[in-house]
Specification:
Length: 206
């Protein structure tokens, strides 16, 4: 049985390049586009959050100011965002250089959208820019910023998928029967943010 990008049984055809319906719209039920967009957005969100945390850790250890810290975090968000999408392609037998070319075309707009929204939200939250990893404000602001970034990037990914672009490119490369269960991503992001928040609270109480 074939599965859609969320790991659920496929009841309708997916909209992929070369599979368009009437009036230029991709074939498939609109719900399929929404589900695939959720998966695409979660992948970008996971990579961005990993990159931002590692960037902050490195910058904090080096004693950097806010500007270079933000620049490093954004750069690593792109690196890990691309890497997370390229990994299943490489595992599926696609050459690394070809996989990187596919994810550059598929994920760039989504990651750019997320990083712009994410950093703008952090800027407007009082004290968030100067909060370190041991400050609960950091984890609360990151959770808020990532949530807002998800809901802004989701329609962007959905629009790309409807035109056969974005993650439709990588999904098509893997084949229509490819399985991609995104529930571990949701659990992983939630557990990571909650764990960081609890650790920061424990540090303050200790």
């Amino acid at each position: 049985m074939e599965h859609d990008i969320l790991g659920e049984p496929a009841g309708h055809g997916h909209a992929l390049p070369g599979h368009e319906g009437h009036e230029g719209e991709p074939a498939g039920h609109p719900h399929d586009m929404s589900a695939m967009a959720v998966g695409a957005t979660l992948h970008c969100l996971t990579g961005c959050s990993i990159g931002e945390i590692i960037g902050l850790l490195v910058a904090t250890a080096a004693g950097w100011s806010n500007l270079p810290t933000t620049a490093l975090s954004i750069a690593l968000a792109f690196v890990f965002g691309y890497a997370l999408s390229a990994l299943p392609l490489v595992r599926g037998g696609i050459a690394l250089t070809a996989a990187l070319g596919l994810v550059l075309a598929a994920d760039t707009l989504s990651i750019v959208t997320m990083e712009i929204v994410d950093n703008l939200v952090v800027l407007v939250i009082p004290g968030a820019m100067n909060a370190g990893l041991l400050n609960p404000i950091f984890w609360v602001s990151m959770a808020i910023a990532l949530t807002i970034a998800f809901f802004v990037a989701w329609p962007v990914n959905r629009a790309l998928l409807r035109r056969g672009k974005g993650h439709a490119i990588t999904h098509h490369a893997l084949g229509e029967g490819a399985t991609m269960d995104n529930r571990p991503l949701v659990i992983g992001i939630s557990a990571f943010l909650l764990g960081g928040f609890i650790a920061s609270i424990g540090t303050l109480l200790g």
